[in-house]
Known about the structure:
By secondary structure, the chain is mostly helical. It contains 13 helices and 2 strands; from the N terminus they run αααββαααααααααα. It has a two-stranded antiparallel sheet. Strand 1 and strand 2 form a beta hairpin. Helix 6 runs parallel beside helix 9 and helix 10 packs parallel to helix 13 (233-265). The two termini are 30 Å apart.
Amino acid sequence: MSKTVRWRMAMVSVAASVLGLSLVVAWDAAVPPEQTPKAHSIPTRGLPAPVAARLEARAAEIAKQRLVELPPPVAVPEFVGGFPREAVALLTESYREMLSVQGLYNQNAVRQRQVARILESRHGAEIASRAISDTAFAKEAFGDFQAESRFYSIDVLRTAAKKGDERWLLRSADALARELTLTGGGGAALDEGRSTDLRDLMHAYIDVKGVQSLANGESALLRSLGYSPGMPAPVKRIYDDVLFLRLKALHGREQAASMTAALLEG
């Protein structure tokens, strides 16, 4: 696992790991030892109804306790960055729900449900985009929860793009690229968290477009994500790393290196 992935997972898992029990513990609490499977991914479909009910109840209990022990949401003014307080509060509530089930068997289902709720709201996608692209807004709207808000916001933008609305993801990536270019161009070290945000946005967009679009040499995809051949080397390296990683899985190291270089120079 890469340093970037370890950092990101540690960021979103730390509260969950210290506040509650893991997936395996959640299962062990609900199911007799002799029925506990070895796999860590435990679907309830196909389980006896009483067992599934106990598992669901135990997961809900853990999530509820985690929510109680999380720091309270930051108090925000009536309008935050032009958005009404209630619109920001909806995302805060959804993101806290997502964190409360981190590592539990039902985390994916909860995240999908909360992302859908955000996208159905009037300002949801735009607030998620601002949370990623505007650090001052993220701090005002989410306080100490701003790092987690950026992480979960990328899920929101990925889902929006899959549904055909790519503008928020692309706007965030372009804004981040500009921010990091300004930092890197001035000779300062890039912020690790912001660099990871850009990497994750790139992965999200490639997930939507498909890796084959890279293999086909579609350099326009990179430009839409804020890339420019004249970027400072540390920023350009972010694009290089992500492209190479995704292409290597399909084409091997040597061919991926050649394809990546062609895309970056195109």
